[in-house]
Structures are given as C-alpha cells and as structure tokens.
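Q: How would the structure tokens look for this protein?
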Amino acid sequence: MDLIRGFGLFGIFVVNLPFMANTIYHEPQLASLGWIDRFVTLLVSALFQLKFYLLFSFVFGYSFGLQIESEREEPSKIQAFRRRLTGLFAFGLLDGVFLFVGDILTSYALLGVLLLKVRWSPPRRLWRMGLGAFLLAILIYGCAIVAMGGDDLSPSKEILEQATKAYAGSFWQGAIQRAGDLLLVLPFLAITNWLPAFGMFCWGLAAAKTGAFEDISEFLSRHGSRARMCLAIGLPANLLFAFAVTDRSVGIWVGFFSIALSPASAVCLSFAYLYGLAWLHFRWPAHTAPLESAGRLSLSNYFCQNLFGCFLFCGWGLGQLGRFGPAHLFLIAAGWFLVQGIVSVYYPRWFLLGPDEWLLRSFSKGQWQPFRRIRAAVPASGHH
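A: Here is the predicted structure in token form.
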C-alpha cells in the first residue's frame, strides 16, 4: 500500500502542478503549444489525469478495511476513524484556502462517512456497489456533456485577470481568492470525482476483506490476464480522452464518448498500474523502497508538494505564475518528487511519523503520539 501511495503522490503532483502554475482556470490547448509541450500535455492527460486519485481512493478503502478488522473487539477504532475523517476535512480546508484550491482531502473525508455506513457489507455487495458507482458516474458525465451542448465554458477575461492578480499578490490576497474558488471547485469535484472515488473505496474495502494482497504471487497469477486486458483497453481509450480535453478540433462524437466513458477508461488504466506495482514489488522489492518510503509519509509529502508549488508560483514566494510550459512543469514535478523520495528514505532514522501524520494520528487517538525516534544509548568503551 505504501508503494501505491508513493506512486500516486508523483502522479497527483504532475496533474496538480499546472493548475498551481497557471491558476485553476488554466485550460491547455494543443494548438498554442510547441511540439514538446504538446507531447507532454497529451502524456499527462492520457496517463495521469483522473487515474492517480483513483489509486489513492483504493488504498483509502483498503486501509480502512484493515483498521476495522477487530471493530467488534475494539469499538474505539471506529471512533478514531471518525475523528480521523474530521481531521482530514480540517486539513483539506486549510490546504484548499492557503495552498492549493484543488485539494482532495475534503472530498475523502466526506466520502469516508459513506464508507462507514457500508463497512459490514460482504465483498460481493461491495464489488456491486463500486460497479454501480462507476456506471452512475458515466451516466452523469454523458448527461453533463449533453446539457452543455458544446457551449464554451471557458472563464471570462475578467475572471482570469482577477484570479491571476490575486495569486500573484500577497499571501492573504491569494488565500481570499482560493476561498472563493473553493466554492466553485467543491461542486465540480462532487460531480466529476466523488462517484469514482467512492467506487474505489468500496473495491478497496472488498479487497481488504478478501485478503487480496496477502499473497502477492497469487494476486499476480490470478489477475494477469485482467491487467493485460485493462491495459489494452485503457491506453487507446485514455489517448482519445487526452485529445478530447486538449484539442477542440476533435469530432463531437469522439469527444462525447471518450469523456463520458472516462471513468471506465481511467479505472482500467488504474488497475493496470496497480498490477504493475504489485509485479515490481514482487520481482524487485529493493528497487521500490524509495517509492514506499515516500508513500509512508504520503500526507506530509502531499502538503510539501502543495507548499512548494505555492511558494514557487505565488506572489508571496518566487512569483513565477504563468512562466512555465507543460514540459518544464513535468520536469519540476519529477525533480521535486525525487528530492522527496530521498528525504523520505532517511527521515525515519530520526522520526517515527511525518509531521502531518503525527498531528492527524494524535487527533484521531485523542492523545499525543510518539514523534521522535528514541535511540538506545551506546555503552562506553570498557563497560558492560
């Protein structure tokens, strides 16, 4: 699970960074870009967009399933999980207002309440609930596209100028702008992300109940054909989706079907990623250690990514808003994540938890948790 979290952290940062660099109203259009930036834009849209939050959602459901295994013996675990959801919601609001308006933690906290309601459902019912959530998401996507009728929903010049001026201004100007933008983003996330995320919550919980990852070799042998099929479907479908969301010259029917079916194509590619990570972990566990270390500190690393992006682009930091193209942003995301991976490998030598993990766990447990790692004293030479 830590490996999946680490991989998901990189993908989410790659998707989020362009919105930090150009305000949330940024809409990349291939016609206005050079060939390198075009390639990177298509790459990110096809392989990253809408996929990595699904991986995180699956891990969220799986981890919850492990936490409630003994609920009948320890009812306090559910109370701790409720407090954890409250803490996640508070963290998400703070992050959305002060760092990155596209924060997903508030959505996870709200959807986690629904997960509590279905926690005792048998695995078969959870699989059906997840499938139903994705089918309903496809229906909503299709209806939304029909309702828009090809209308251009790009923000007006005045809105773009106001947002750019605020984000390029002082710390408080940016925070006020984000607070207003958050009221627009949350309904958008509810329409586009909540149903697929809840579907993955259910599937992750079902996987935990059935012990899907207790034996990695068995998982690989059972799901190899499914993973290859998902990859064969997901790659071309997501490439069509990438063209549909970045190139307005794409035919109306191609755009309609590729966007409407994007929840299904995204989950296909997400499962292929999941299988690939399991294969890497089984074959070369030592080589996946940096990703696992980053995933073990996923909450702190996530906030560090948003803080880094905010400092790099906003007016109270380096003020580089709107000055980088897609290719440069991809390299920046990869470089910063590499730094995080290195730090995450050595950080546990001194600390038991990341700072944000420590705060959230302390709040969930209702008491301060150990933070610093206590080293055993080394006896002086000649004494026993």
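Residues 57 and 225 are 23 Å apart (CA to CA).

The chain has a mean pLDDT of 87.

Upvote if useful.
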